[in-house]
Amino acid sequence: HINAKHWVLSDDKKNKDSKLAYALGFVKSVNDEISDISYRFFRIGFYLVEAQNNKYYEELGFNNISDCAEYYFGFKKTTTYDLMNVYRSFRDVKGTWFLPERWKKYSQSQLSVMASVDYYPIPFRDMISEHDTVSDIKKAKSYWNLIKQGKLTSKVMRDRSVGRVYNNVKEFLAACEEIL
Q: What is the DSSP string of the chain?
């Protein structure tokens, strides 16, 4: 009976050690990617999401992923959650750590703004091009939020359904600014 209890404790310790190994692997993986963050931000988002889902931050002595990321990588809370949100919003169905081809020409900043749109995000993203400035995308998002609140819907959308919006962000901004 004592031996059985001993083995249970050993298994618990083994599981704890294994999770710590994964947690330390997470830190190493992000540090390997961080030197080229402008191209590897999507993979870093993947690692952060994995670490949050598996609570690796607890094994490293933190209460949440953002405190852990700030300590190990210097990421502010906003950066941490932006990277995670971009990964969650733009990953392919298989959930791999590679940014799908359609989004590769976009910057992390452009994708971060698009990922933060929760009201009909697909039509919003469809009108954004990789040539649009972050400033224009943010402005379009603010107008899009007015549509969500019902303040521009009837005026800007006129005969357009929310599913078929505008061909590009410039056209959308012009229509909104004409009214406002």
A: -HHHHHHHHHHHHHHHHHHHHHHHHHHHHHHHHHTTHHHHHHHHHHHHHHHHHTTHHHHTT-SSHHHHHHHHH---HHHHHHHHHHHHHH--TT--SSPPGGGTTS-HHHHHHHHT--SSHHHHHHT--TTS-HHHHHHHHHHHHHHHTTSSHHHHHTT--TTS--SSHHHHHHHHHHH-
